[in-house]
Amino acid sequence: MALAKAGEIELSYERAGDGPPLLLIMGMSGTKHHWGDRVLEELRRDFDTIVYDHRDAGDSTKTGQPFAISDLATDAAGLLEALELDSAHVMGISMGGMVAQELALAHPERIRSLTLGCTYCGGEGSALTSEDVLRRLAEGMSSGNRELAVRTAWEVNVSPSFAAGEDAYARFLANGMRYAMPVAVIVEQMRAITAHDTSARLPEMQPPTLVVHGTLDQMLPVQNGHMIVGLIPDSRLEILEGIGHMFFLEEPARTAELVREHAAVNA
Fold it and tell me: Regarding beta strands 9-16 and 48-52, do their DSSP bridges make them parallel or antiparallel, or are they unpaired?
């Protein structure tokens, strides 16, 4: 584990691999450990891959203060600066995709290529998590049974066929039990997500953008991917049929291939 000074806080990060820099921005309730070994192994073959913990998450500074998605984007820019990287390829998933939007809008010169996965831009026509899924997640978190909470999160974040796989779930459970996120931090992240809205600014997006979304996404429905690509000029949409929210866990090789191809075109 290493720490980088980003403004007034320190961000915990890990960096490995060879090639151009690739910054991965994690989503709600996740840490640098939740990307999964398989997709990281794939990406590290072609990229100097950087994963990190958001403020108040994992091993980064615990501020205990409210924050907005734009604050998390400022943190990401600070991390790039601390690592002395003038620019990088960037992939953000879910909440991390919202952070990546704000980062790319504020600092387009620092983004070589942008991949937005399973994310949301706000505005009319967008869709957050349904009340039914939120209820299931809340029941799991409030049950006092950590394993039940992890199992519920698993079932709503991946496709039903993938959720049935024992090996994949065992890896997810191990991470969930070892790197649990405090409920108060998750609630604050949810508040920031609800307030997020870049829809009116996305037509100004400059970095070349790839949007990736699974058709069985229960957390942020696939209509969000269609909406985002309709707003960002010259962006491209990759739809993953039969895949859930955490497409990078279900399809690690395909995820790496998409990022690799997008980065190669925009080297």
Answer: antiparallel
